[in-house]
Amino acid sequence: MLFILFAGIVYFSGLPAAFAQTPQTYQAPEVKLLPNNSFYKLQLVWDKLSLLFTKDSAKRALKYIELADRELTGAAKVIQLGDNAVGLHSAFRGEHYMTQFVNEIKRMADESGSLDTIIIKRAHDAYPYHQQLLIGVIGKTSADTQTDLQKILEFSQRNETELKNLELEFSTPKPQEE
């Protein structure tokens, strides 16, 4: 029984996608378990464990993008079904993953002195998708939820700007000390 539960969590987590190569074009995730499902908390526990046990920074950064994709896609679907509170919470969690992504990239850059352009490109592909999802559901909600979703959209834009500033910082030659 425990094996079946574990196999279900692995199946719904999209773990096989975590080991796939970075795609050349951005693709939206297939969300099999929506945030309003009673088993979704198991998914969140699995996500935390997978991040905890992912020691490679580059893989962890990609995992943050993958989790953000899933959370924001699930949020949009749940909001379209009329569950604004759960959708809002999931959207916030998704954008928080992107904040963690930016922090992970900063840490990697500080340690190595350079940026991983492949991972950065993946994030630049993800941001428009995330922002379109948020824009798409803002008009389908009540005024209070619209305000909160607008804030999440602003967080997304801020994360994207922060990533661009980091790229600029690492692409600008530093003056030589004499």
From TrEMBL:
Residues 1-20 form the signal peptide. Keywords: Signal. It comes from the Bacteria. The keyword Signal applies. This is DUF5667 domain-containing protein.
